[in-house]
Amino acid sequence: MSPVKNSCSAAAPLSQLKMYSFMGGGLFCAVVGNILLVVSTATDYWMQYRLSGNYAHQGLWRYCMSNKCYMQTDSIAYWNATRAFMILSGMSCFAGIIAGIMSFSHFSSFERFNRSFAAGIMFFIATFFVLLGMAVYTGVTVNFLGKRFGDWRFSWSYILGWVAMLMTFFAGIFYICAYRMCESRRGTGPR
């Protein structure tokens, strides 16, 4: 049985080029965003501070003082929530990347399922999860840890988390724009 040709592939060449440009830009943003999510989640430079005159830094999994690092063995709710949201975000972004790569194919056996739309939604879900994780960490750090340590600041792992959120958001925007271009080429028939 031969696959059914997707009606988006019948679009005019210029329109198709624009659609692929949006999808390519979205895929680039998604790959960069997913790499940043992994690096941000795995590294231990979310916060830097001075403790008893010594430089220290911590992440979601470890804290380091006097050039020695130790695992975070405490099961503190905000760390667990931040970890979970960051991992869910990375998984959602990866699923969106797979759907985004698959959306480049012209053939589909599903007439009602648009992979560009699915990829865009997955990227927005990833954005939502990273936003939740960063908001939880920021709120607790500013209100609790910031008062405990007088000389402290957020560090590069934390900043990468916010940049990853922006990248996944823009990936979602690009894929939804590609979907809208595809839908506008199909016409306005009933669904």
TrEMBL record:
A molecular-function term among this protein's GO annotations: structural constituent of eye lens
Cellular component, GO annotation: plasma membrane
Membrane topology: Multi-pass membrane protein
Pfam families: PMP22_Claudin
Compartmental location: Membrane
Main localisation: membrane
Keywords, alphabetical: Disulfide bond, Glycoprotein, Membrane, Phosphoprotein, Transmembrane, Transmembrane helix
Family: Belongs to the PMP-22/EMP/MP20 family.
Protein purpose: Present in the thicker 16-17 nm junctions of mammalian lens fiber cells, where it may contribute to cell junctional organization. Acts as a receptor for calmodulin. May play an important role in both lens development and cataractogenesis.
Assembly, per entry: Seems to be associated with itself or another lens membrane component via disulfide bonds.
Protein name as it appears in the record: Lens fiber membrane intrinsic protein
Organism of this sequence: Austrofundulus limnaeus
